[in-house]
């Protein structure tokens, strides 16, 4: 160390060197764009977002301040391929640089197409596209869950098509963004909402109008695809493009090129049903008329056949026999009824002679006489008791120790005892004077 030659110029401090780097980077890397995959998303208690954007060989720390996040209204998730815009900033305390993000967009078409193909191949190998896993659409659904933007044209098209084709249906709209970084999460929440209802809908229609691959990308997210596959309700995907398919088209139970076609494939046409019913009614009416005519002719042929004439003759003979037997039965029945009536009348006369009502009437008279005697005896006894009670009450009043008090007198009590004579009175003790309406204490 002693042999080293000292520097002939000033050596900067760490802070001075960092300031130079800060000035150099921040002045030359403003309003830059960078593409990569988001990872390690973390939101602080202050509402700021901290994350990393990376590719295979490098990574860049990023920050979105709370006010910027509120303006962008995005939902950041790990694994999203995005284009970020902003300014590079050096943070001296940590000796690191980071991107202060002011713009977030979905990544370019080429990279998205590659990601689409990779996800499609992955889900296909897992069996999410198999026809055996697809649920059949009900023939006559009446409750529909519609997942799309409440402000877009897709829901208006769906509504108008339902009015024309199947007006008996009830639509339940669950708004979800169909474009942008937050759209995939909202689509997943909407599907899960319908799937968890106690009274679920018959079919879910999910989709939007047409657009570019970037616009339609939420319908290519893996979370959306798996949620559609796991949904217990049949799902119709209608992402609004004729030629290309989205991942949701492959995994859904049915695919429609447009929202209007989604209504067409999931509902019967009420006008066609009316025509079909009318046609079936006409066919049924014609068939019934043919059957009636056939059996009418058949009965007419039987009516003029020799076998039927023989049967009719036998029926006539048996009818006469039945009428003769019926007359004999009626005559015998009348005879039996007359005999029974005569016997009943004879027994009634005997009963009348032995009827106990005369004895009952006699005993009723005796009972009435005894009741009168009992009443008189009760009155006499009650009178005697009342007289005795009055005499006893008068004697009690005479010997009632409270009687003098009622007449205005008073008495003196000591130790709770009535002092009846002057010799019993003790002058040193407290006394109580008892009046008619109370007691007065006199202390010594």
From TrEMBL:
<feature type="domain" description="Exonuclease VII large subunit C-terminal">
    <location>
        <begin position="128"/>
        <end position="441"/>
    </location>
</feature>
<keyword id="KW-0963">Cytoplasm</keyword>
<protein>
    <recommendedName>
        <fullName>Exodeoxyribonuclease 7 large subunit</fullName>
        <ecNumber>3.1.11.6</ecNumber>
    </recommendedName>
</protein>
<keyword id="KW-0540">Nuclease</keyword>
<comment type="similarity">
    <text>Belongs to the XseA family.</text>
</comment>
<keyword id="KW-0269">Exonuclease</keyword>
<feature type="domain" description="OB-fold nucleic acid binding">
    <location>
        <begin position="13"/>
        <end position="103"/>
    </location>
</feature>
<dbReference type="InterPro" id="IPR020579">
    <property type="entry name" value="Exonuc_VII_lsu_C"/>
</dbReference>
<dbReference type="Pfam" id="PF13742">
    <property type="entry name" value="tRNA_anti_2"/>
</dbReference>
<comment type="subunit">
    <text>Heterooligomer composed of large and small subunits.</text>
</comment>
<dbReference type="Pfam" id="PF02601">
    <property type="entry name" value="Exonuc_VII_L"/>
</dbReference>
<comment type="function">
    <text>Bidirectionally degrades single-stranded DNA into large acid-insoluble oligonucleotides, which are then degraded further into small acid-soluble oligonucleotides.</text>
</comment>
<keyword id="KW-0378">Hydrolase</keyword>
<feature type="coiled-coil region">
    <location>
        <begin position="270"/>
        <end position="328"/>
    </location>
</feature>
<dbReference type="InterPro" id="IPR003753">
    <property type="entry name" value="Exonuc_VII_L"/>
</dbReference>
<dbReference type="GO" id="GO:0008855">
    <property type="term" value="F:exodeoxyribonuclease VII activity"/>
</dbReference>
<dbReference type="InterPro" id="IPR025824">
    <property type="entry name" value="OB-fold_nuc-bd_dom"/>
</dbReference>
<keyword id="KW-0175">Coiled coil</keyword>
């Amino acid at each position: 160390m002693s042999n080293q030659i000292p520097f002939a110029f000033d050596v900067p401090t760490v802070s001075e060197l960092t300031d130079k780097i800060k000035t150099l980077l921040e002045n030359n890397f403003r309003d830059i764009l960078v593409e990569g995959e988001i990872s390690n998303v973390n939101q602080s208690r202050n509402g700021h977002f901290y994350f990393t954007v990376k590719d295979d060989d490098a990574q860049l720390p990023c920050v979105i301040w709370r006010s910027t996040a509120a303006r962008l209204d995005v939902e950041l998730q790990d694994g999203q391929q995005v284009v970020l815009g902003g300014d590079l900033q050096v943070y001296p305390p940590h000796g690191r640089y980071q991107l202060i993000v002011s713009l977030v967009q979905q990544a370019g078409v080429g990279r998205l197409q590659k990601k689409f193909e990779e996800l499609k191949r992955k889900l296909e190998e897992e069996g999410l596209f198999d026809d055996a896993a697809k649920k059949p659409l009900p023939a006559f659904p009446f409750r529909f869950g519609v997942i799309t933007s409440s402000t877009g044209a897709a829901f208006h098209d769906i509504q108008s098509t339902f009015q024309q084709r199947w007006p008996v249906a009830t639509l339940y709209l669950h708004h979800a963004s169909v474009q942008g970084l937050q759209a995939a999460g909202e689509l997943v929440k909407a599907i899960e909402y319908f799937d968890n209802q106690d009274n679920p809908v018959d079919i879910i229609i999910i989709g939007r109008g047409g657009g570019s691959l970037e616009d339609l990308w939420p319908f290519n997210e893996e979370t959306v695809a798996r949620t559609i596959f796991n949904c217990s309700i049949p799902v119709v995907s209608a992402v609004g493009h004729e030629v290309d398919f989205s991942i949701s088209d492959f995994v859904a139970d049915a695919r429609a090129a447009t929202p209007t076609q989604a209504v067409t494939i999931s509902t019967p046409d009420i006008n066609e049903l009316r025509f079909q019913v009318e046609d079936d009614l006409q066919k049924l009416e014609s068939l019934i008329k043919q059957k009636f005519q056939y059996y009418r002719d058949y009965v007419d042929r039987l009516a003029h056949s020799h076998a039927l004439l023989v049967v009719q003759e036998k029926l006539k003979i048996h009818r006469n026999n039945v009428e003769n037997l019926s007359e004999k039965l009626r005559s015998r029945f009348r005879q039996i009824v007359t005999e029974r009536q005569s016997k009943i009348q004879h027994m009634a006369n005997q009963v009348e002679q032995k009827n106990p009502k005369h004895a009952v009437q006699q005993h009723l008279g005796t009972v009435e006489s005894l009741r009168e005697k009992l009443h008189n005896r009760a009155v006499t006894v009650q009178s005697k008791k009342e007289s005795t009670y009055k005499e006893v009450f008068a004697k009690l009043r005479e010997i009632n120790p409270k009687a003098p008090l009622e007449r205005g007198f008073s008495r003196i009590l000591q130790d709770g005892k009535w002092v009846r004579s002057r010799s019993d009175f003790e002058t040193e003790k407290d006394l109580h004077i008892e009046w008619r309406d109370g007691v007065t204490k006199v202390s010594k």
